[in-house]
Each structure stands twice: as structure tokens, then as C-alpha cells.
Amino acid sequence: MKKSEIKILLVDDEPDILEIVGYNLSAAGYQVFTAKNGVEGVEKAKKKEPHLIILDVMMPEMDGIEACEIIRETPGLEQTIITFLTARGEDYSQVAGFDAGADDYITKPIKPKVLVSKVKALLRRLKENKESEVEDIFKVGDLVINREEYKIVNEGVEIVLPRKEFELLSLLSSKPNKVFKREVILDRVWGNEVVVGGRTIDVHIRKLREKIGEDHFKTVKGVGYKFVV
Fold first, then answer.
1. Cα dihedral 24, 26, 29, 35 in deg (nearest 10)
2. For the whole model, what pTM was predicted?
3. What's the Cα-to-Cα distance from 29 to each of 4, 80, 216, rounded to whole Å?
4. Cα 198 to chain center, whole Å?
5. DSSP conformation class of 188
6. Using CA atoms, how far apart are residues 170 and 49, in angstroms rounded to an integer?
7. 68 and 102 Cβ atoms separated by less than 8 Å
8. What confidence tens digit (pLDDT) does each residue in 94-140 have?
9. Which residues, in sequence order, are bridge partners of residue 155?
10. What is the pLDDT of residues 27-77, one digit of tens each?
11. In whole angstroms, what is the distance from residue 137 CA to residue 128 CA?
């Protein structure tokens, strides 16, 4: 079977689980990577940027709950689907998993075919999330943003912005009232192009306030910025 572009990271300290689950997922056509504890799982997640992560809860060195929390705070992995695969069915364990940022919870033992079906359902959720992402042209209040032409129209007046100011505005306005952390902004807007500091964001926000309006950009001290309609 031809391998799909979907990458799955399986993290469990039981070799049998890694072998059996990994085999069935590979047989279903997915690219499968494995890790035997939370520390290794976090490292693999950052390196491979998988679409789906299946995490055991009880593991040596770092448990699944802590690993999930770290992964959720990692730029580039915010949209990764995370599910726990564990023999522990207690309510408190499930609650802890969801509080850490997990999307779902699978109790083992589970038949391979059922597991593959569950994975397919989770990946459909990922596809739906991508399809619901901001379009190339969208409207926020009186602001129209055209990401294809790098064009801004504010209350009927076209505004020309430098590339980084445009990308910063596009990011913040894509989810009004959502607070974007400074590290996320740096990663999304500047990426690996150059080494910049937090002060760079402040300067660009100041320029956007001058051009778009002071009230649209709110500072959340010690965290980041949000766009308000």
C-alpha cells in the first residue's frame, strides 16, 4: 500500500504496543514514528511535526499528561490531534488528559481494526479543522484582508502595508479576541528567517495601531496580543 502523507507519532513504554499498533497503522498506509517515553515523544513531535499523536499516560521519565502539555505549547503543533491510549479508565485520568489539551481518549486493549477506524475518525477532524481555516479573503468588522494580493481595505480605504505588518495583522485578525502568545507570533510571522526579539513585535504593533486603529490591538501583559473588532 502506498504510504500517505499523514504522519502519526505513537508514544508508549510497552514494546508490544509500539510493535502491534505501529504495524497496524503502517499497514493502513500511515507514516508511523515511535517513542518509548514522554521525553523522547516530545523530541520526536518537535522534529517530525506529526498530524496525530497517540500518547500513553503512565510512562517513565515523563508521563503522557506532561508531554501533552508541552506539545500543546510548542509552536507549529497547535493543530496536531492528540489522543491518549491507556489501560487506565478512571475518570480523573481522563479529565487530566483533556485538561492537558488532549482531543480524545482511547482505552486499551482495543482491536487493531477498531483502533484504525478511530484514527481515521480523528484525522477527519483534522481535515475539518483545516477546511475551516481562514480563507484568502476575509472580513473582520470594517476590515477586509486579501491574503492573495497582500491588500488591506479599512472602511473602504485601501491601505498598503509592508509584508511583516500585513502578516502580523492577518494572523491576529484571523481569530478575533484570541490571545496569540509572543513566541507563536514570532514563529508564524518571522519563522526561521532571522533572529528577532520580542521588541520587534512591539514595533510592528505600534505601526499597525497608527494605520489601522489603536482600539483594535490589545496587549495582554506577559503573554502577547489580540485583535479586537
1. 120
2. 0.56
3. 6, 19, 46
4. 21
5. I
6. 23
7. yes
8. 667 777 888 788 887 788 888 888 888 888 766 655 544 556 788 88
9. none
10. 999 999 999 999 999 999 999 999 999 998 888 889 999 999 999 888 888
11. 19
